[in-house]
Every structure is written in structure tokens, then in C-alpha cells.
Design goal:
- By secondary structure, the chain is of the alpha+beta class.
- The chain has one domain: DD-peptidase/beta-lactamase superfamily (Beta-lactamase), CATH 3.40.710.10.
- It contains eleven helices and eleven strands.
- Helix 2 packs antiparallel against helix 11 and helix 3 runs parallel beside helix 7.
- This is CubicO group peptidase, beta-lactamase class C family.
- Keywords: Signal.
- InterPro entries: Beta-lactam-related, Beta-lactam/transpept-like, Diverse_Enzym_Activities.
């Protein structure tokens, strides 16, 4: 068996649990300073990870305790803070998803839509390898009639529209996660409408697999996991494909993002133009969105399951250069280049929001109280 098959066997009990429980998984930068040349990267072949203490950074320990209480009271399972790549905070609460043991550094949890940003990186890698071009129409990789649109409308949709949530497909259909052609109906021309629509995103996985000629798990393993030491896996759940990993794996991905697609000295997503486009406003309809990536510090935002544009930023209490992979029930991979920080939060839903932005903003209020 290859590495991906071995991992799938390891995750099989979890997959069975998900099927039985019918749990729901997916929802569903401006130019910044160069990363410190002394950035630390944990080894890829072990779980060893260098640490720093809160005291050595002169952070506020009383504020840290207030932060921990807030996280614990709001369903958090895992919380990690990296500074210059080293672990400053690593906390776990509660039990595993199966409920049969305490949650710890080896426990797996779902990324939900935070996995979208991982997909954005994989699309970029596929493009830099010459396997695809995001400016090509989607039918180049999925074939004609992948939607129920007239051909002249279907041909307007490119991979870039899928990356930016601007396909124009009808999000009011009965199942917005459904990727069957009959579920993919016309509402507006591509590029003229922004809506957080899962189905067009999910199809990017088929685009990459078709272009590369390997499974999506194998492509992830070969092009990101092996280089960074990540050891997660994509598991099917209904119409979605959800990434699962430990919190430390999520932190490794955050560190890769912080270092602009390079792991230590190993280029992973080496296309700087693509990375910059991914982590900056990708269109004007929702300036707080890049390529499947949320951006702070912008003048307005359109939230998931909403069509209104609000004159606020993603997280006013966080540094303005923060960008994030964000998922249902509060799965966060936050990257702050100006402070060389990566912040991971995994856990249950703290409130009823699809993506709990109010919780996220309060979390950052408490983090700011701690570090400043």
C-alpha cells in the first residue's frame, strides 16, 4: 500500500463514525514584511517542536489565563500559538471526536472550510507544475456540461472564478453542496456575483485530480504533506471532501503560509505571483476574500450565507494584515506576518454562526491583550 492508502486505513474508524453520525463537515494581504530569517521549522520526520515561553516574550500571563478560560468555555478542543515558528502556547480540552479519550496533540479534528485554503495552495502548485491554468475555463478539466448552463454561459466560468467564489451559479438551489450538473444552475454571469458556494469549490478537487492523474489525497501528500511533515487526509462526507488532521498539522500549514509557500529552504508553492494573489483581494465584490482565503483589514466584507456587503473588516481586534483559513464551527488557521504569528483554533461551534466571526474577533481581543 502507498502512503495515502495507509493513512486511509488509519482514518477508517473515524470515517465509519462520521457516516453513522451523519456529522456535517464543510460549510462551508497586503504586502507585508519579509519573514524573519531565523524562522524555525520543526523536523518533518518527528513530532519534536521547539518552544518559547510566554514569559520570555514578556506576554501578559494574566491575560493568557483569561484567553484560556474563554476558549475552554466556548467548545475549543485545540489552541496553538506559534511565534517565529516555535510553539508558545499549546492547549487541549475535552475529548476526541469519538468521545473515547482526552483530546491531545495526536487527536484528529476536521478543518471544515479551512481546507479551502489548502485547496487554493494545491491549485497553485498544480499550475506551477504546468498541469493547469486558472484562467482556463473549467470545462477544460471537467468536460462540457459539468453544469446545466447553456454552453456559452458555462464557458464563462474559469478556475479563477471557482477560487474566488464568483462562478455566478445559483446558490438558492435546494442543495448548494451538490456537484451534479442539475444542481449547478445559472443565476448570473461569472465574475459578476460573489457568494460562498461550496459546490463550485468542491469541484476544484476533481479539476486537480484530473489534471494530475492521481487522487486528491495523493496529490496533497506528494506536494505539501511530505515537504512539511503534515499527515492529514481528505475524507468524503456527503457531497463534500473534508480534510482532517491534528492541530499541529494545521500549525505546520500555517507556518508554510507564513513563510510564503516555502518550508525552511524547500519551495512548496514557489509561484510568488499566485501566492500574492491568493492572500490579497481577488475581486471587488468581496475585498475580504482572496483565493479561498479570508483577509483582514479590508473596507468591507460579505460573510458566508449572506449577500450583503458590510462596511467592516473580518476581525477588527486582530492585526490588519491577518489572513486566515476559516471553517464551520470555528476552525481557524490565522497567519499574522507583521508579528510572525500563527494561531490555530479547533473545536465545536461557540455560537450559531456558520463561521463564528464574533467569537473569532473576541478571541483576538484577548490575544491582543496578552501579547501587547
Amino acid at each position: 500500500m502507498n502512503r495515502s492508502q495507509i493513512k486511509m486505513m488509519r482514518y477508517l474508524p473515524l470515517l465509519c463514525l462520521l457516516i453513522l453520525c451523519n456529522c456535517k463537515g464543510d460549510d462551508t494581504i497586503p504586502e507585508v514584511q519579509i519573514v524573519d530569517e531565523e524562522m524555525y521549522f520543526p523536523p518533518t520526520n518527528s513530532n519534536v517542536w521547539d518552544t518559547k515561553t510566554i514569559e520570555s516574550l514578556q506576554w501578559n500571563t494574566t491575560a493568557a489565563e483569561d484567553l484560556y478560560t474563554y476558549l475552554s468555555d466556548n467548545g475549543t478542543r485545540a489552541f496553538i500559538v506559534l511565534e517565529d515558528g516555535k510553539i508558545v502556547i499549546e492547549k487541549y480540552w475535552g475529548t476526541t471526536i469519538q468521545g473515547n479519550s482526552l483530546f491531545n496533540e495526536t487527536s484528529n479534528w476536521y478543518w471544515a472550510s479551512a481546507g479551502k485554503t489548502l485547496t487554493a495552495c494545491l491549485v497553485g502548485i498544480a499550475q506551477q507544475e504546468g498541469l493547469l491554468d486558472i484562467n482556463n475555463k473549467t470545462s477544460t478539466y471537467l468536460g462540457a456540461n459539468w453544469t446545466s448552463l447553456p454552453s456559452e454561459k458555462e464557458d464563462l466560468i474559469t478556475l479563477k472564478h471557482q477560487l474566488t467564489m464568483t462562478t455566478g451559479l445559483d446558490y438558492t438551489v435546494s442543495s448548494p453542496d451538490c456537484t451534479d450538473p442539475e444542481c449547478l444552475q445559472y443565476l448570473a454571469d461569472a465574475g459578476t456575483q460573489w457568494y460562498y458556494h461550496n459546490a463550485p469549490y468542491t469541484l476544484l478537487e476533481s479539476v486537480v485530480s484530473n489534471a494530475a492523474g492521481v487522487s486528491y489525497n495523493d496529490f496533497t501528500d506528494q506536494n505539501i504533506e511530505l515537504q512539511t511533515g503534515m499527515d492529514g487526509t481528505w475524507l468524503p462526507l456527503g457531497d463534500n471532501n473534508v480534510y482532517w488532521s491534528t492541530a499541529r498539522d494545521a500549525a505546520r500549514f500555517g507556518l508554510l503560509l507564513l513563510n510564503k509557500g516555502t518550508w525552511n529552504t524547500t519551495p512548496v508553492l514557489s509561484d510568488a505571483s499566485y501566492f500574492n494573489a491568493m492572500t490579497n483581494s481577488s475581486q471587488t465584490l468581496n475585498p475580504s476574500y482572496g483565493y479561498l482565503c479570508w483577509l483582514n483589514g479590508k473596507s468591507s466584507i460579505v460573510f458566508p450565507s449572506d449577500t450583503s456587503n458590510y462596511p467592516i473588516s473580518l476581525a477588527p481586534n486582530a492585526p490588519s494584515d491577518l489572513y486566515a483559513a476559516m471553517g464551520k464551527n470555528g476552525q481557524f488557521i490565522d497567519v499574522v506576518p507583521s508579528k510572525n504569528l500563527v494561531v490555530i483554533r479547533m473545536g465545536e461551534a461557540p455560537d450559531g454562526d456558520l463561521v463564528p466571526v464574533n467569537f473569532h474577533n473576541t478571541m483576538w481581543e484577548k490575544i491582543t491583550n496578552m501579547i501587547e
